[in-house]
Design goal:
By secondary structure, the chain is α/β, with parallel strands linked by helices. 42% of the residues lie in helices and 16% in strands. The chain has eleven helices and 14 strands. It has a six-stranded parallel beta sheet, sandwiched between helices. Strands 6-9 form a two-stranded parallel ribbon. Strand 10 and strand 11 (220-221) form a beta hairpin. The chain is globular and about 60 Å long. The protein starts with a strand and ends in a 7-residue tail after the last helix. NADP nicotinamide-adenine-dinucleotide phosphate (NAP) binds at residues 6, 8-12, 30-31, 34-36, 69-73, 88, 92, 110, 112, 140, 159-162, 167.
Length: 314
């Protein structure tokens, strides 16, 4: 049994869809089981193990995996609500790690490129020193450390510039703006790697599959090693170039129906209130080697996303 926490969020909805599609036994919770409340997590876990409403055998009711897609994700608001951001992203992660450890479950937890300060000129590897710039990044970094201190059977996946079908995101925002305005200003001095939730969710499922089907051969265990991994789509871009690609693909697919001029601007000109990493490209060498996967380019993932029938900017 897999317990998906944050199942109604942007990433969580995609993971839920893929778990369902691949016929996993899973249960999902969101805000109704508050991760800042350790007792609420324990009570839910017990209710699953003893429940009769799930049409599964008693062994299937044992939670072997917890996937945590819940989080406090509003970077600007976190500056004003530091205590709440810390409760959800740090204390919440700790509570989940404790719950996982107490039942012997493995944990997959999602973290962020914002744990870095963005001053590097080369792609960040997993072992590079962290130095978050704002409250959100600090809370995500503290959550990672809480998990690392509490348990060993974890996979922390740091991702970046995430967009998906079921939630507010840059691709949807741009599409809406480009369909309603004839000019948009977009920041061109921040560089990163977009990540479509579809690919991130499928990597989460791949970790579970590889681990569940692991074998011993020549004294070596084939399960992916526990630890921290980076995952985004391949390549890098600025928000400005990302917006240009959205416009091009939106026009081509008929999802953007009017002309719009995209103006590059600096973070300072844009008037951003929170400092964000200027360069947050993550090296994905470790995950590619461990899972034996090749990463699709961010442009090809964006094209599939925009062309999809599920594309619905709300
Ligand atoms: N979005 C990005 O660009 C990005 C980039 C890097 C990393 N990440 C990380 O990726 C993960 C998923 O992000 P996302 O964009 O899918 O987030 P999201 O859409 O904001 O989803 C998070 C979910 O967690 C729920 N939640 C909030 N507080 C909770 C609590 N106390 N107990 C239980 N559930 C709670 C939220 O409910 P409400 O919506 O009702 O608050 C929401 O359903 C997060 O860990 C995030 O930090 C995101």
């Amino acid at each position: 049994m897999i317990w998906l926490i944050g199942c109604k969020g942007m990433l969580g909805s995609e993971v839920a869809r893929q778990l369902e599609q691949n016929k996993y036994h899973w249960v999902g919770t969101d805000k109704e089981v508050d991760i800042t409340d350790r007792e609420a997590l324990s009570a839910f876990e017990k209710s699953v193990e003893t429940s009769s409403y799930l049409d599964t055998t008693s062994t299937d009711k044992h939670i072997k995996w917890i996937i945590n897609c819940a989080g406090y994700t509003n970077v600007e608001q976190a500056q004003e609500e530091a205590e709440l951001a810390d409760q959800v992203n740090n204390v919440g992660a700790l509570n989940i790690a404790r719950t996982a450890r107490s039942i012997g479950a493995k944990l997959i937890h999602i973290s962020s490129d914002y744990v870095f300060n963005g001053k590097s000129s080369q792609a960040y590897t997993e072992d590079m020193p962290k130095d978050p710039l704002g409250v959100y990044g600090q809370s995500k970094s503290a959550g990672e450390e809480a998990i690392q201190k509490e348990m060993t059977q974890f996979y922390i996946l740091r991702t970046a510039w995430l967009y998906g079908f079921d939630g507010k995101n840059f691709v949807y925002n741009m599409t809406k703006l480009m369909n309603s305005q004839n000019q948009v200003n977009v920041i061109n001095d921040q560089t990163g790697s977009p990540t479509c939730a579809v690919e991130l969710a499928s990597v989460i499922l791949k970790i579970i599959e590889k681990s569940d089907n692991a074998t011993e051969a020549f004294g070596k265990h084939s399960a992916p090693a526990f630890g921290i991994y980076h995952f985004t789509n391949a390549g890098q871009t600025t928000w400005y170039d990302f917006a240009q690609e959205i416009y091009k693909l939106g026009k081509k697919s008929g999802k953007i129906t009017q002309d719009c001029t995209i103006n590059p601007c600096s973070t300072a000109e844009y008037g951003a209130t929170v400092e964000r990493p200027a360069f947050s490209v993550l090296s994905k060498d470790k995950i590619c080697k461990e899972l034996k996967i090749k990463l699709p380019s961010w442009q090809s993932c964006l094209e599939k996303f925009i062309k999809s029938e599920r594309f619905n900017p709300v």
